[in-house]
Structures are given as structure tokens and as C-alpha cells.
Amino acid sequence: xxxxxxxxxxxxxxxxxxxxxxxxxxxxxxxxxxxxxxxxxxxxxxxxxxxxxxxxxxxxxxxxxxxxxxxxxxxxxxxxxxxxxxxxxxxxxxxxxxxxxxxxxxxxxxxxxxxxxxxxxxxxxxxxxxxxxxxxxxxxxxxxxxxxxxxxxxxxxxxxxxxxxxxxxxxxxxxxxxxxxxxxxxxxxxxxxxxxxxxxxxxxxxxxxxxxxxxxxxxxxxxxxxxxxxxxxxxxxxxxxxxxxxxxxxxxxxxxxxxxxxxxxxxxxxxxxxxxxxxxxxxxxxxxxxxxxxxxxxxxxxxxxxxxxxxxx
Length: 313
Description:
Elements: H1 7-12, H2 16-26, H3 29-32, E1 35-43, E2 46-48, E3 55-57, E4 59-67, E5 70-81, H4 90-107, E6 120-126, H5 148-151, E7 160-163, H6 169-173, H7 178-187, H8 192-207, H9 212-230, H10 248-285, H11 290-297, H12 301-312
Parallel strand pairs: 5-6, 6-7
Antiparallel strand pairs: 1-4, 2-3, 4-5
Helix pairs in contact: 7-8, 10-11, 10-12, 11-12
């Protein structure tokens, strides 16, 4: 199962303030209100799963939760899910990953069966274009629902979903945190105006932050990685960009260059589609051979042969 991680996000969530912003801004308030974020502790997210022998890296923190006068440490298991398609097997994956995490705690003696296993809050942070449509409890995958005498024996594990794309600009604006600004940039259309508005908003948030120099460095590093990811191979001059606050003109120029590149790619894609359509028409309506069609349409002969094969199926 492919699981693509964004290294920029992994860095963001290596800082406790961004974990706090994620929970306070996007998790249920009744959960966030019980947490003492001054007790956040980062834990390794590297495990070898015994079932698939698959190495995966996710973000794991623990935090104290105060409930009815009792303090208890809860593990926040944050899965960064950046696949282009929704993973229908996510409930099974999460059940497997949490089981592996418990196995890790036991083997490292961070927990014992006698003392009991600590609670885990599994969180899936997703930023794909399609809205998430997968059940959030593995039990919901069991169909048809088993009769009552079997239900008690079925597995249950629910994860909490944070689907970035479901938040509107207005909803993100209600959360005046650097992380909400990051989500706004992720959700922004690739047009220069939309990107610039999103960047201007996060800059304003940074300037109002008590630790603005630290937050500026963190967000700047993330944005540089984000732009490189969404525009691989583009001629963006990001090496000299060290501060969103101080280098706003340089960033605006890079965003303008990014949009120009996308427009050029769009025009080239349109021309390529037109060449293929010409070739398809000639294949369907004439007796010309592939080399002649290739010369007229401006395509390689191999491409024409492939289009001919497609039309014959």
C-alpha cells in the first residue's frame, strides 16, 4: 500500500506548537480542552511492522489528559496521508499500525501488560483533492452487519479524520494560527492571486505571533518545500528565500513565475491533445499509414501506432 509522506509536514509536526494548533483548531473541542499541552512529548514514529515487514514513518506525540481529577498520558498517533486517491483500506491500516505501536511500547518496555496499555488517539491528516469517503471505524467495513451474538467479537478502532479540503477560507480564517494559514495555502488554487492571498494571510498571522521569528523560519521552510513539490522542475528561485516576512517581493516574483510555467504547460498540453485528435481523425477516415499520419499530425510514429491500437479495441 503506497503511503506518500510530505517531509515538510513531518517537520511542521515535529514542533509542539503545531501539534497543539492541530488539536485545538481541528479536533473535537471536548478532547482538546482536557489536554495539558505543556506536557507534550515527541516519540519516534519509525517502526517495522511484523505483518508486512513494511517500514513507515508517522508522527507520534504523547500528552497528559486530566479527567475527573486523574491525569493520564494519551498518545497522539498522527498519520500524514497525502495520496492522490482516497485509501479504502485506511481503517485496516490504522488498526494494524496501532497494534504495531502497542507492540513497540511493550518491546521497548515503555508499557507493560500488567500496568495496562495507554490510550491512543489515531488521527488521519488528509490533503487530497477528493473528499474523504472511507468509514472511520474498521467495524463499518464488516458487511452485512453480523447478528447480535457475533457483534461483540468484531474489531473496533475509530480514527479521527482531519480533511483539509473540507474547510472553507472563512472557516480557516476563524482559526488565526500558523497551521490554519498552511492549510489555506494547501487549499488555494494555483492562480497567482489565490496563492498570494493565502500567503499574505499567513504572513499576517506570523507577524502577530509572539514567536514570529521562529514561526517565520518554520513556515518559510515548509512553503519552499511545498512549492517545490507542487511545481517540480520549475525555475523557482527559492534558495535566497529565508523569510516570508522580509522577502515578500521575492516570493511574489516566484509565485508569478510559477503561474507563468503552469500556463505554458497548459498551452502545450492543449497542443498535444490537438495533435492526437488530428491523428485519430486520420486513422478513422483515411487509409494513410502510420509514418504519413505522424508527419501530418506532428507526432512520433510510435505514438500514432499506439493511438491506432486504441481505436481498434
